[in-house]
Amino acid sequence: MTTAPVIGPEERLPLGAAEADPRTATRRRYLMCEPRYFTVSYSINPWMDPSAPVSTDVALRQWHELKATYERLGHVVETIEPAAGLPDMVFAANSGTVIGGRVLGSRFRAVERAAEADHYRRWFVERGYRDVVMPESINEAEGDFAWTGEVLLAGTGFRTDPGAHAEAQEVLGVPVVSLRLVDPRYYHLDTALMVLTEADPTTGRRAQIAYYRDAFSLGSQRVLRHLFPDAVIASDVDAACLGLNGVSDGYNVVLPREANRLATELTARGYNPVMVDISELRKSGGGPKCCTMELRD
């Protein structure tokens, strides 16, 4: 486990002994939003307690270190200007899904977050994205959508409506697999599942994920076992620190620093865990992935 190694993008990297194929770090482009106005002034998930102390300064320091970690790993980070009165705008993953340059925006369930969607829409339009569609159904974007390189895994149960799954398939032009979340602590798909390696049809590489079984309905657990028989299964302890709210480039996996068991398992699978402190932002139910929208142009 490391804190922030410098790994060249596209570099073929060494394996754990159990791995047949090397893990590959690929350069990614991310969109992030500084938590300049971060606080916990309302509660829309079980992690949020407006009566508990929150430090905006600590959240800022942790966010800047997360951003710097991505940059040290060779990734490109774009930023959007935060807006006063929108303390959760820092969670960029919830405001857009980008695949092949097509953008599906968001429509939030909670009224407190509704205005965030148009700020992100304008960011895409002002930067020349031509295919920007705002959804009709409740859709919390990469909070509930995870691209595996072949299919879009789509969560529902607490935030995103099932109808948004069909809408995503039409707008983004990729097949969608619906998964039902059943534990309110894991209210978004990205709190219970992360993509470690994307599938690559040109090389025959299969996608690999990590997930927490008990966050999903029994039927969805069967679907995940069928699609990903070699998935990394997270423990209760890993899930409880939002350890699955991580970001992988195919080799380096940025995780909350408390997710030690998951980090050990990932190391055994040939990945390189990169641990970060995101504890202040976790008070609003967020981790590294919540802060990070991937721009797949």
From TrEMBL:
This protein's record includes keyword Hydrolase: yes
Keywords for the protein's UniProt record, in alphabetical order: Hydrolase
Tree of life domain: Bacteria
Molecular function terms, GO-annotated: hydrolase activity
SUPFAM superfamilies found in the cross-reference section: Pentein
Gene3D superfamilies: L-arginine/glycine Amidinotransferase, Chain A
Record protein name field: N-dimethylarginine dimethylaminohydrolase
Highest classification ranks of the organism: Bacteria, Bacillati, Actinomycetota, Actinomycetes, Pseudonocardiales
